[in-house]
Amino acid sequence: MSVDNIPKIVISRLPVYLRALNRMVQNSQLVTSSHELGKALGISSAQIRKDLSHFGEFGKQGTGYQVEFLITQLRQILNLDREWEVAVIGSGDIGHAITRYQGFADRGFRVTAIFDSDPSKVGTKINGLEVQPADDIIKVLRERNIQIAMLAIPAEYAQSATDTIVEAGVRAILSYAPISLNVPDHVKVRYIDPVTHLQSMTFYLSTEDDLLTQPL
Amino acid sequence: MSVDNIPKIVISRLPVYLRALNRMVQNSQLVTSSHELGKALGISSAQIRKDLSHFGEFGKQGTGYQVEFLITQLRQILNLDREWEVAVIGSGDIGHAITRYQGFADRGFRVTAIFDSDPSKVGTKINGLEVQPADDIIKVLRERNIQIAMLAIPAEYAQSATDTIVEAGVRAILSYAPISLNVPDHVKVRYIDPVTHLQSMTFYLSTEDDLLTQPL
Questions:
Q1: How far is B60 from chain A (nearest CA, A)?
Q2: Residue of higher predicted confidence among A28 and B61
Q3: Domain CATH code at residue B41
Q4: pTM for this structure?
Q5: Nearest-CA residue of chain A relative to B215?
Q6: B46 inside domain
């Protein structure tokens, strides 16, 4: 399997499949189909079969997918059969929320370092984790070989913080700052921007005309 | 144009195009092409042309797209040629961060109400906005016809809060809670889950073998 031959958009859908499959396991469901998965996710069953076909044969015509087996396969493909350490840059509202986020558990990640440039925040604890000075980012990340970071700082500081963590060896960045970051080719960046999600819903919101026809 | 005939995935890409076009305007760029847009976004130019063709003809063969014109069209398609009021449910870390988020400005949204069930938080102010009691959600949202809400509360309260805001008339929900919500067909839901973004990057992160071949 060559990593470069698989479209980025396909890779971005695998975690969504994985989340849906984990929900099925929680509900004690053993078998599913591309049709059922697609219905739950708003994706065509043909698309799901095509996405998975990049990586092998995971189901049989007529019998569907074994849920646990497909989960194991997807976790292997996504390199989630280990736990990744994650550094959080910035201990403001978002940094706090990420560090305390319950959703990382059992999904491959653990926040093990948090940094801030504000001396009044350094030394405070979030979820048992001590906030370290921003000046120590390179030293700490290199020592512990941390390759993933989440950026939770204002837009104006985001690029210089990015340069620092890339120098420290980070190769995957999830940014909450509403600006586009420049990184070398070997570094991946994803953005969390609530506005693009909101904008994808306003398309469906009716305007005044429709409201008038709604039952009171 | 029938809303139902256009794949959800196409709609979800339009805000991403819009964001890229807005960056071009900031850089005083007047014209672009599907090729250039695609390169910036990691999407094929054919896909971009196909997505836009659902809504009409926005560019000419050989001359590309007028950036400002395409922005105006996309804003109209996405119902962003007005400002939408947004309610934030929960005034914890994430609720705080959302309410203070600078990225809403000029992109179609304004947070105009925030609620919390914790009496010690009610009456405090975030970004000049007073936190209101959760018991007032239905009254306030109905009075002001607020149709969009962002859920920033723990997973265990997310479904009951969803039921409340849907009863109040909300038809678009952006949830930060790591659970799947049940809503009636007329309500749209999007989820912000940092883990799925992280998982889409670990695919590209090399394992120990590769690390050994990296320069020190």
A1: 25
A2: A28
A3: 1.10.10.10
A4: 0.81
A5: A169
A6: yes
B91 found inside a domain:
yes
Tokens of B40: 């910036």
ipTM value of the model? 0.89
A181–B contact, CB cutoff 8 A: no
Answer yes or no: do B64 and B135 share one domain.
no
In the structure, what pLDDT confidence band is assigned to residue B61 with cuts at 50, 70 and 90? confident
Of B104, B145, B205, the CB nearest to A79: B205
Chain B residues with CB under 8 Å of A77 CB are: 203
Give A15's contacts in chain B (Cβ within 8 Å). 195-197, 199-200
CB-count burial class (<10 Å; 0-12, 13-18, 19+) for A110: exposed
Question: CB–CB of B15 and A42 under 8 A?
Answer: no
What does B170-207 look like in DSSP terms, one character per residue? --EEEE-SSSPPP--TT-EEEE--HHHHHHHHHTTS--
Q: Say whether pLDDT at B79 is over 80.
A: yes
pLDDT for the residue B134: 97
Cβ B113 vs Cβ B85: under 8 Å: yes
- Domain residues for the domain of A166 are 84-194
**Is A120 near chain B, with CB under 8 Å?**
no
**Tell me: the pLDDT tens digits for B12-43?**
899 999 988 998 998 899 999 999 998 877 78
